[in-house]
Amino acid sequence: MKLPEKRVLPYFLYGIASVVICYVLVSLVDMLPGAVLSVINIFIKYLSPFIYGFGIAFIFNPIMNKLEYKLFPKIKTKKPHPKLYRILSLVLTYLAAIVLIAILFVIVTPELIKSIENLIANLSVYAETVSDFLFSVFSSENEIVNQFLELLPQIQIEITKFLTDTVVNFKNIQSIFELGKGLVSGVINIFVGIVISIYILTDKDILKARFKKFIYAVLPPSFTKKLIYWLSFSGQSFSNYISGSLISSTMVGLICFIVMTILDWPFALLISVIIAVTNLIPFFGPLIGAIPSAIILFVNDPLTAFFFIIFILVLQQIEGNIIAPHIIGDSVGLSPIWIVFSILLFGGLFGIPGMILGIPVFTVIYAIIRSLINKWLEKKGLPTETTEYMTANAKKYNLENAERLASKRKISDILKEMFSEKHKPDDDDKSNK
Q1: What is the pLDDT of residues 169-211, one digit of tens each?
Q2: Which residue in 57, 294, 355, 378 could disulfide with 197, CB within 3.0 to 4.6 Å?
């Protein structure tokens, strides 16, 4: 169809405008990730003291709660002193953190540097030990052994470079105030963050009430109750898990150091730090830490490495069945298959931080999905208990297993009372349930 001559120009302009708009939209879509990241970076740059403050308060809050609500109320006085309990809990929590940091910088870090430097100095000797061991076990004509020995000098160079860089980083941390003006702002931000965290922990009840007041003002009441419940559940799960994992890993590292020192095994501090740090990674962490530690001991003495592996297996049983359950408590509540799934998923997406934080994130997601499924089943008039969907044999097996777990828990009620902290929903949470 032929357009009237007087309408050709408008259609032409519409076409040009459409092309321009599409081009702009495509450009915006391409620029969106960079624009979002730049905005996030600006917020992080200027609000970093508040981020540090909320992070510190988030980690310290469970420890402070145990002192404020469990320890001090047990002290017999004429009348309770809630304000005094809070102040004392705050002071003790920060004093403990200061002492731990001082021990880390004054005692642990210098000894760790010495251990790594000693390892670097003797690396060539250890390489010869490995060669002699391989020749004593395998034939000198073994192709795999010969290929490994050809790569051994390059491996030695890479290990030396990695360990040297590690020593430099530790020394830089020790001399953080001497690195120049670039770190001054970072130190100031951390200091201001600590001050902000003190204010947050002191006035946490008021801040929480104001936040709830704001949410109730801008959102529908029915939705607000659910939102507050899930925010409270998420915060409690994250806080308990992170602080509990830190305490549990520290205890594991301390036990490892004490046993290795008593048995006079070499590199006790270095290996204990490796075990403690990698233990923060659930499920795979002990394996990740045990392999390099066993290799370090193996090149020094193969028999010591063998006994070390046995010791780590025993230590992980103690940590998995005694330490972690009573410090972290039942905040996870996931079966092993979901723990592995969450580690692999979030580890693949976000690396090491994802492996550490994947479990509490998936715990919240799992709880939300379970709540929705139970709600849908209730609407259909169907049972919500998982055992109702099992066969008779499976139900009997799970019942016996639950009874065995209950009997094990009774043995350690005292430890559980000391360390565990279950989620207690507010009045709004209860009404939501």
Answers
A1: 766 665 554 444 445 566 788 888 889 999 999 988 898 899 8
A2: 57
Burial of 283 (0-12, 13-18, 19+ CB in 10 A): middle
The torsion angles phi and psi of 77, rounded to 5 degrees, stand at -135, 170
Give the Cα separation of 388 and 392 in Å (integer): 9
For residues 289 and 292, give the distance between their C-alpha atoms in angstroms, rounded to a whole number.
Answer: 6
Q: Decide: 276 and 252 in contact? Cβ < 8 Å.
A: yes
Instruction: Report CA torsion sign: 7, 10, 16, 19.
Output: negative
Single out the residue of 412, 260, 431 nearest to residue 323, CA to CA. 412
Which region, left, alpha or beta, applies to residue 329 given φ > 0 means left and ψ of -120 to 50 means alpha? left
CA 263 to chain CA mean position, Å: 31
Structure tokens at 408: 């094990």
Question: What are the tens digits of pLDDT across the range 258-284?
Answer: 999 999 888 888 889 889 888 888 777
In this structure, which amino acid lies at residue 236? Answer: Q
Which amino acid is present at 244?
G
Q: How far is CA 59 from the centre of its chain?
A: 11
Give the distance between the most distant pair of CA atoms in the chain. 99
In this prediction the pTM is 0.65
